[in-house]
Automatic annotation (TrEMBL):
The keyword ATP-binding does not apply. This is Ankyrin repeat family protein. InterPro entries: Ankyrin_rpt, Ankyrin_rpt-contain_sf. It comes from the Eukaryota. It comes from Actinidia rufa.
């Protein structure tokens, strides 16, 4: 069953995921408690399968807290690979998880994605203000708050530009 779940994650096949869950409703719970060598969420995030990620998190939101063998969360992978849609999905309603993630790997919050954006830029860009507030509480580093993306935009620039649109 583990192999089928892994294959579904690799291909991003949400139909197969549904079939697997119908056959074994607690398979994702076993992932959460560490019975699997690798998390299907990490695999799907790495390969950019946003719909599969969404389906996994809908069924078992705790998967967002699972760390891989290198102590990285799925959010760390999403940020490192510039997968902003997936990062948004991983942080929706999970502000409390961010504190845990940043404590495990504080440098992950400084990773730049896409156009040189930090996770703070992504929070403003995707209107994730609760997440932004929590990150600012945790990070408390002024130069990070004033960081510019490749377009020279700080968080304030993005916030003001968003209000004009």
């Amino acid at each position: 069953m583990e192999e089928r779940l892994c294959e579904a994650a690799i291909t991003g096949n949400t139909i197969s995921l549904g079939e697997i869950l119908a056959e074994d409703s607690i398979i994702l719970d076993r992932v959460v408690v560490g019975c699997f060598k690798r998390s299907p969420l990490h695999v799907a995030v790495s390969l950019g399968h946003a719909d599969f990620v969404r389906a996994l998190l809908h069924h078992t939101p705790e998967l967002a807290e699972v760390l891989d063998s290198q102590q990285r969360s799925a959010l760390h992978l999403a940020a490192a690979k510039g997968r902003s849609e997936i990062a948004k999905e991983l942080t929706r309603g999970k502000v409390e998880v961010l504190e845990e993630l940043v404590q495990v790997n504080p440098h992950a919050a400084r990773v730049r994605v896409g156009k040189g954006e930090t996770i703070l830029h992504l929070c403003v860009k995707h209107n994730q203000l609760r997440t932004l507030e929590k990150l600012l509480e945790i990070i408390k580093v002024q130069e990070f708050v004033n960081a510019k993306d490749d377009g020279g935009n700080t968080l304030l620039h993005l916030a003001v530009a968003d209000k004009k649109n």
